[in-house]
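Whiteboard transcription, Tuesday session. T.W. wrote the structure tokens on the left side:
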């Protein structure tokens, strides 16, 4: 389960660091890992202002799972529906994802996002806007970044959603498919009634009820 959390949190930290505080359009979408051949990892994503929910749609030994991020309160939780349990995200993983999102796109200017990208602490890295592009029928602004080692990555921002709808780099890549704009139920971002809290002890070892 921890590996699943770390993988999805990597998406959050590196690819889905959106203008959560300024985004006005709530939406849902399917998130597809385009770098995984054969059966790509897929997840359902729900976005509502300062809240984000990601549900695994890919069967695995981990039994899937749900991650809920609340950027306003700086909290993150993992839901395990099969066991009716939840646990707080590991502090290190949570802080990395939250910190990146808080630093990215503070101005909300999709047409001039490089300055906000630089705020994430990319020392020795460069960024420039490539120009307008279309991703799955949606108008976007494409950017190219190069890190200190020369590794090139790209991301595409949707001006209406103020959210990345495509990203690709050496070690990660994905797209948002079937985007549906509209208000999202508040219950999606809450711990369901009857769930019990679990703690993940240091060194993994196993889970124990709180």
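and on the right, the sequence the group agreed on:
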């Amino acid at each position: 389960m921890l590996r699943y959390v770390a993988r999805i949190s990597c998406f959050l930290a590196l690819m889905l660091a959106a203008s959560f505080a300024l985004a006005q359009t709530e939406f849902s979408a399917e998130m597809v890992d385009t770098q995984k051949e054969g059966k790509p990892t897929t997840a359902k994503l729900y976005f509502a202002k300062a809240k984000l929910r990601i549900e695994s749609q890919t069967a695995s030994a981990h039994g899937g799972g749900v991650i809920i991020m609340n950027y306003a309160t700086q909290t993150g939780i993992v839901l395990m529906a099969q066991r009716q349990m939840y646990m707080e995200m590991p502090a290190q993983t949570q802080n990395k994802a939250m910190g990146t999102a808080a630093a990215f796109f503070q101005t909300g200017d999709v047409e001039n996002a490089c300055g906000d990208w630089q705020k994430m602490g990319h020392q020795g890295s460069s960024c420039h806007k490539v120009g307008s592009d279309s991703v799955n029928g949606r108008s976007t602004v494409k950017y190219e970044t190069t890190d200190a080692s020369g590794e090139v990555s790209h991301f595409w921002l949707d001006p209406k959603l103020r959210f990345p709808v495509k990203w690709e780099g050496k070690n990660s890549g994905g797209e948002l498919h079937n985007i549906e704009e509209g208000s999202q139920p508040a219950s999606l971002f809450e711990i369901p009634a009857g769930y019990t809290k679990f703690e993940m002890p240091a060194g993994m070892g196993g889970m124990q009820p709180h």
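Someone added at the bottom: Residues 13-22, 98-107, 205-210 have pLDDT under 50 and may be disordered.
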